[in-house]
């Protein structure tokens, strides 16, 4: 979809579709609409879950799952020294993999800030011997490489006494009598202001933790809209997404799906999986089994699995945000880097069929998926069993030509007056993805 048409559609949706009709409903700026359109074209980003939890090598929920007292857990900061961290090397690896943006955990549920914040001394500069501002270095590397930077920010906190613990948090030794929502809310907004005024252009704020006090729990007002308004005032083009697993809320710019394609609920997080908005979509998924580093988790997806995931996500009109958990020494796992190289190699050849596309006429099927760019549709055949067979597709327009993407070879086809297309798939050697081009 052309930029002007997409921006017009997004503006119409913000005004009348899926949003509140209450006075003062959020209307995105032109800068924001442009940012949304750019984001929707990117299709592939890298998610990074990194914090003190990497030292325990048990995943990002170690503090909560282990029942460790938060004060004892905090002592680990004195030993956190990721001496092999090199933001430039990270970004170079992501760029070589074909990723267009990075989303980094500025502060996860453990409450540790990965930048020099004035709101708390519990941060990587003041509480660790490392003493370096990771977000500052990552922001510099991203801006220099023309890589868009998004920042994950946790709404919940297992460490701070002023956070009103909901479904989680009391196992870590916090005193519920010390909860002070106003104080905690001001703390969050101070931190968000720092992130949006100190590190240059930020592409998006990616919230998580809403589900700790979701609509199924005791009524709780997260005061999202005022917080969203603060972000949009500081950086109008900054997009806001919230991993709340519910229908989008007033003020949000993108819709997030965790471990699922839009409209699906295989992971069990989305109660109303069919409620897919017309906002730009993103699905986040792990490269192995965990978000944060886990030393025993070597169950990494293959290059073929990742490519197929990217194809199916694009076939739903969404972006894939693929997660890596950096090691405590600051390095990215070697297996993750190897997988990224393979994905990058594939994208250098087939990126045209992914970047800047929308969903094709047929949503992902067992044989593969379709993507669209203008009047061209790409048929991604990820099941090699389709070679030498016929494939029937219910299309919305008339096909003039059908060819093989890599060779230009013509593909025999028949199409009914109603648009149903039958393709005769050429015999071919097994491959990760066999792409046909329909014009």
Q: What proportion of the residues form beta strands (DSSP E)?
A: 15-25%
Report the order of strands and helices.
HHEHHHHEHEHEHEEEHEHEEEEEEEE
End-to-end Cα distance = 15 Å
Kindly state the percentage of residues in helix. 25-40%
Give the low-confidence spans: 12-23
Overall 3D form = globular
Radius of gyration: 23 Å
Structural class category: alpha/beta
Number of alpha- plus pi-helical segments: 11
Number of strands: 16
Let me know the average pLDDT: 94
Strand order of the largest sheet: 5-4-3-2-1-8-7-6
Largest sheet, described in full?
A: 8 strands, parallel
Describe the structure.
The chain has eleven helices and 16 strands. It has 439 residues and is α/β, with parallel strands linked by helices. It has an eight-stranded parallel sheet, sandwiched between helices. Strands 9-10-11-16-13 form a five-stranded antiparallel sheet. It has a three-stranded antiparallel sheet with strand order 12-15-14, with no helix packed on it. A hairpin with a 4-residue loop joins β14 (413-415) and β15 (420-424). α1 packs across α2 (30-42) and α6 (87-96) packs across α11. The longest helix has 18 residues, at 181-198. The radius of gyration is 23 Å and the shape is globular.
